[in-house]
Amino acid sequence: AMQREQLDEVRNTMKPLLTTLAAGALTIPALAEDLSAPIAMDQVPEAAVATAKANAQGREFDGVLRQVEDGDEMFEFVGTKAAGLGFGVEVLPDGTLLETAEVIAVDALPPAVSAVFAAELPGFEAAQIEKNTREAGALVVYEREYEVDGETIEAEVHEDGSNFVNLGPSEG
Q1: How far apart are the C-alpha atoms of 21 and 141, rounded to whole Å?
Q2: pLDDT in tens, 48-81
Q3: In whole angstroms, what is the distance from residue 53 CA to residue 10 CA?
Q4: Fewer CB within 10 A of the end CB, N or C, for the chain?
């Protein structure tokens, strides 16, 4: 049950981002509806598995989710770091890396990111902070969830404190 909860938590955290990232993925016309479901590792294309393992920093995966959004297929490999915090690697079927993501402690934020979150979201406690690495390592974005009237809201900012965006309600 804990593993399923972790998969759900990572999936819910990353879902809005996946919608944006899916734009360059392969199109599968036969699958018109969105889908996110656990899949056996041996059912994932070898190229995707190889890329995920190469970007897992030696950590083991707890599972993999096959996701189809707007007809685009991708695989999200999820696991747990030594500190009990989640991590994930998102890969296209052809092995193209979309993103690596890891949940981090609030005190691990770069000062520029902490300052922007404090200024833009005063008084809101972070429910979760996620460090996302995109564009082959060229872009690091920190995503933060917080609660407003019982609703989970997401915001993100680049590593240098630029490009703050409030993403709005979390899907999940």
Answers
A1: 13
A2: 999 999 999 888 999 999 998 778 899 999 999 8
A3: 18
A4: N
Q: Is 15 helix (H, G, I), strand (E, B) or coil?
A: helix
Contacts (Cβ under 8 Å, ≥6 apart) of 49: 41
- Reported pTM: 0.71
The average pLDDT across 25-43 equals 65
Return all residues near 80 (Cβ < 8 A) that are at least 6 apart: 6, 62, 86, 87
User: Looking at residue 42, what is its pLDDT?
Assistant: 94
Out of 7-11, 46-50, 75-79, 123-127, least confident range = 7-11
What lies within 8 Å, CB to CB, of 38 at 6+ separation is 7, 63, 64, 65, 66
Residue that has been written with the tokens 């872009």 in this structure: 139
The answer on pLDDT for 10 being more than 60 is: no
